[in-house]
């Protein structure tokens, strides 16, 4: 059975989960870049493109381009130009969320991995098996202080978790990054053209895609003040992106080893940390009145 994976995405749930596992998962991501896709195709061409773009971006050469998604709140202003990595994936080739009944009929636990691998016809040492093991391990890892987490294997279970966090009687709305133009470029300098809206987020759930044969979302919420924005970006090649941004105002409890501090050159509690969301990640908030020049 052929499966389309989203290889590098595993470490991105750490954009809001701040533990010492950040660097370890970022290193694992490099291995995921070699995963075989359906039909035996590899994404080595994409890797070369990323390295080529990185070489000419005039940014910190020692930092993985895929980590270039962080900035600070003071930089969130019209005219700011920064290097940003946006993975490009065809939604038609991405794993789909299964109906709850179908997803619940298959074990989703690390101790059942041998059975799951047989079910999907993957050998134990295959790249797919390694990815699945990592996903299951992260889903079963205890949350960090102040975090509530859940791996959703269906749309229904995602909504159930989100309602539990935001409120069972709350109306929900979700937001995602939108690419207005089609391009194969994943890493380049972008300029902020406009802050389209600031989205009130008294409570927020972020859901990040994880590599698995069918869609799995790592959803979590943290007890800290956050701000959510939609901004309009323009790349050096004229790519237009309506990008979702989450800014974490209190970083005092984060691990000093968190990758965002390495990228930004700051320390816990001294600065806000903002980050962009890839297009297949979701932000859930209560449905409230939105302030800004546009709405979803």
UniProtKB/TrEMBL annotation:
The lineage of its organism: Eukaryota, Viridiplantae, Streptophyta, Embryophyta, Tracheophyta. InterPro entries: BURP (IPR044816), BURP_dom (IPR004873). Residues 1-21 form the signal peptide. Keywords: Signal. Pfam families: BURP. It comes from the Eukaryota. Residues 70-287 form the BURP domain. PANTHER family: BURP DOMAIN PROTEIN USPL1-LIKE. This is BURP domain-containing protein. The keyword Phosphoprotein does not apply.
């Amino acid at each position: 059975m052929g499966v389309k994976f989203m290889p590098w995405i595993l470490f991105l749930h750490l954009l809001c989960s701040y533990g010492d596992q950040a660097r370890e998962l970022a290193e694992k991501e490099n291995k995921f870049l070699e995963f075989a896709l359906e039909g035996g195709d590899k994404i080595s061409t994409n890797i070369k493109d990323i390295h080529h773009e990185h070489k000419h971006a005039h940014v910190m050469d020692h930092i993985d381009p895929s980590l270039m998604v962080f900035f600070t709140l003071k930089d969130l202003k019209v005219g700011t130009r920064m290097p940003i990595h946006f993975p490009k994936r065809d939604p038609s080739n991405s794993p789909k969320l299964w109906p709850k009944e179908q997803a619940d009929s298959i074990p989703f636990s690390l101790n059942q991995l041998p059975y799951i691998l047989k079910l999907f016809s993957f050998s134990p040492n295959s790249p797919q098996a390694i990815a699945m093991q990592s996903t299951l391990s992260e889903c079963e890892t205890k949350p960090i202080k102040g975090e509530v987490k859940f791996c959703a294997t269906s749309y229904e279970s995602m909504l159930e978790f989100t309602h539990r966090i935001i409120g069972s009687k709350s109306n929900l709305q979700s937001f995602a990054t939108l690419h207005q133009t089609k391009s194969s470029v994943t890493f380049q300098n972008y300029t902020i053209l406009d802050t389209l809206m600031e989205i009130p987020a008294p409570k927020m759930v972020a859901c990040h895609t994880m590599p698995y044969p069918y869609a799995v979302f790592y959803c979590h919420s943290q007890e800290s003040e956050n701000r959510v924005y939609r901004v309009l970006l323009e790349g050096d090649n004229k790519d237009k992106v309506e990008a979702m941004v989450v800014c974490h105002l209190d970083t005092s409890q984060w691990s000093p080893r968190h990758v965002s501090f390495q990228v930004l050159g700051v320390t816990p509690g001294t600065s806000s940390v903002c980050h962009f969301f890839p297009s297949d990640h979701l932000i859930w908030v209560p449905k409230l009145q939105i302030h800004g020049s546009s709405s979803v």
